[in-house]
Design a protein that fits this description.
There is one protein chain. This protein has 175 residues and is mainly α. The chain has 7 helices and no strands. The longest helix is centred in the last third of the chain and has 17 residues.
Amino acid sequence: MPWAVWWSFAPQQLLKKTRGKWRATQLPAWTPGGARSGAMGGSSFIIPAKAKNPELAWLLYEFLCFKQPGYSAVYGPSSVYPGGLNTSVPSYTPARKADAPLFDPVAALGGQDLWKVTVDAAAAIPAAAPIPSWWAKSVDYLGNNVQRLMEGDMTPDDVIDDSTRKIQRNLVDRA
């Protein structure tokens, strides 16, 4: 499933009949030797120019994002997320240690170690990589095929093969 790290909420909370049958993996490379993952989403943090306590806002942000106790509190087990917050990974590279997971393997993904999959994928994203001009149009192939998968009309391998072929032919090679 593309965007699996954040999409993993679906088998955990919505797809009860297929819980445990889903897995995450890296995407196909669109060019030989190219990246097999990408940054989808993300967020921004701002401190308004007229903030009452901008220094305190920065200290909170710095703690939550760049200090081990902070990012462990955000991503680690809590009363809200007993196995940890597993729908994203920290943007701060030192927080993404493959051998020091911040969340547990995901039962709804068959016990898969989603932490390892996602930190390996994050490490492979080229710095300051632009989003290709054709990216938004890929949903016409991949998104439609994922819908067919969910309806039982395609297998995961069919989705990957057909989407890859059509995206390569109709979008990448024409860009």
